[in-house]
Amino acid sequence: MSVKASRVAVDGCRWPSKYRHATKDDAFAAIAALERAGRGSPDMSVYPCAGHWHTGHSIEKFKARIQRSLRGGRAKRSKSNRKGRR
Ligand SMILES: [Zn+2]
C-alpha cells in the first residue's frame, strides 16, 4: 500500500478545513446570516464540493466587480461607508 500525502480528504473534499454545508440552501443561509450580522460581502458565493457545499469569496465575482468599478466609476472614488455602523 502506498501512502501518499494528500491534501484532499478521504471523501474528496477540496477544502477540509472549511465548514461543510449539507445543502445549497444551507450554504446560502449561512451567507444570509453573515449579511444580517453586518459581516457579509457582495463577493460571497457558494460552491459545490464532494457531496456538500462550501461558502467563500468568489474570485470571479470579485474580479467582475473590480472591472465594473474601473470602467464605470472613475469619478467617484469615495469608499463605501455602508458597513452598518451606528
Ligand atoms: Zn468540501
Give a description of the structure.
- The protein is of the alpha+beta class and 86 residues long.
- The chain has a domain at 18-75.
- The chain has helices spanning 24-36, 59-72; strands spanning 44-48, 53-57.
- It has a two-stranded antiparallel ribbon.
- The chain is flat, with a radius of gyration of 18 Å.
- The protein binds zinc ion.
- Zinc ion binds next to loops.
The quaternary organization reads as single chain
Global morphology: flat
* Spatial gap, N to C terminus: 60 Å
H-E order: HEEH
Helix/strand class = alpha+beta
Which percent bin holds the helix content? 25-40%
Fill in the keyword field for this structure.
86 residues; alpha+beta; two-stranded antiparallel sheet; 2 helices; 31% helix; binds zinc ion
Topology:
Layout (H helix, E strand, L loop, with lengths): L23 H13 L7 E5 L4 E5 L1 H14 L14
Antiparallel strand pairs: 1-2
Zinc ion binds next to loops.
Task: Provide a concise account of the structure shown.
The chain is of the alpha+beta class.
